[in-house]
Amino acid sequence: MSKRFFVAEPVTGDSALLSGAEAEHVVKVLRGKVGDLVTLFDGDGAEFPARITAVGRSSVALAVLARQEVSRELKTQITLGVALPKGDRQRWLVEKAVELGVAQLVPLVTERGVAEPNEAALGRLRRYAIEAAKQCGRNRLLQIGSPQTFGEFARGANLAALRLLAHPDSTAVPVAGLAWAGPAADVWCAVGPEGGFTEEELAAADGWRRVSLGPRILRVETAAVALAAWFSLCDAIRPGP
Ligand code: SAH
Questions:
Q1: What number does the ligand 1 atom closest to the CA of 196 have?
Q2: Residues 54 and 160 in one domain
Q3: Using CA positions, which residue lies closest to atom 8 of ligand 1?
Q4: Is the pLDDT of residue 1 over 50?
Q5: Which atom in ligand 1 lies closest to the alpha carbon of residue 190?
Q6: Is there a single domain that holds both residue 93 and residue 32?
Q7: Same-domain pairing of 199 and 114
Q8: What is the CATH number of the domain that holds 13?
């Protein structure tokens, strides 16, 4: 699984070119040489054994040896709407979401939110998603959606999906207690900011089930990862589609 590199352009022919951060990784970190074997992926589901044919200052050319459809995805489609925490905790959140097989992460714009999901922040999240996919062997990238309010997120959700709002109160049911069966379900989860969702935001949660993650107050990223971990691990015993 090591020496995996992400190619931004879809790999279609028998050659590929790495540039930017990926080329730098090959040249400066791994000291890649002509003839070295690596694995490429373009985020679209397949991986490609490849051999380095030329190493430039800021680009690396490769011969693509084969196309292999290797899925390390969940059957369950997990969409996580999260009010982003600050700084490094965003990186942790994205990394763990990728490792656990989350399909899509949507930054939620909430009244009590602390981090603004601007273009620069979204760019960083996408880069973290690539780094994590390289490391954990996923051939599909975690999709980072456009920032939305909880209302917009809720309206855009698949109504047939299991829709869960993480909320630490006594009316919430324990997530592990949800009866949940059937083939390859779609799960949408919403996690609020450190200050919690406001009453107005909660009012937009029509059709969403409030779930508890226990009697302790978790950090935003812990709550998001706990939910993703639950569905990720349950996926192994789900019937296929
Ligand atoms: N003071 C806030 C706590 C926010 S914690 C409040 O009372 O709402 C940040 C977010 O993490 C919450 O909005 C919720 O989505 C999630 N969360 C944290 N701990 C949780 C728990 N024990 N059960 C369910 N959700 C939790």
A1: 8
A2: no
A3: 196
A4: no
A5: 15
A6: no
A7: yes
A8: 2.40.240.20
State the residue range of the domain holding 8: 4-69
Shared domain check, 158 and 223: yes
- Is 218's C-beta closer than 6 angstroms to any atom of ligand 1? yes
CA 15 to chain centre: 28
Site to probe by mutation for ligand 1, drawn from 218, 219, 221 as the one with most ligand atoms within 8 Å of Cβ, is: 218
What average pLDDT does range 190-205 have in this prediction?
Answer: 94
pLDDT bin (cut points 50, 70, 90) of residue 40 is very high
Picking from 97, 45, 53, the residue whose alpha carbon sits closest to that of residue 73 is 45
CA of 48 to the centre of ligand 1 (A): 42
The model's pLDDT over 68-122, given as tens digits with 9 standing for 90+, comes to 999 999 999 999 999 999 999 999 999 999 999 999 999 999 999 988 889 999 9
pTM of the entire structure?
Answer: 0.94
Q: Are residues 91 and 124 in the same domain?
A: yes
Please tell me if the CB atom of residue 213 comes closer than 6 angstroms to any atom of ligand 1. yes
Task: Work out the widest C-alpha separation in the chain, in whole angstroms.
Answer: 61
| Single-letter code of the amino acid located at 227 | L
Shared domain check, 224 and 133: yes
Beta carbon of 93 within 6 Å of any ligand 1 atom: no
Number of domains in the chain: 2
- Which residue's entry shows tokens 């812990």? 222
Classify 171 as helix, strand or coil. coil
Q: Would you say residue 2 has pLDDT above 70?
A: no
Task: Identify the pLDDT of residue 184.
Answer: 60
Evaluate whether 194 touches 219 at the Cβ level (below 8 Å): yes
Nearest CA to ligand 1 atom 12: 192
Rounded mean pLDDT of 135-148? 97
Claim to verify: residue 128 and residue 218 sit in the same structural domain: yes
CA separation for the pair 151, 141 (Å, rounded)? 26
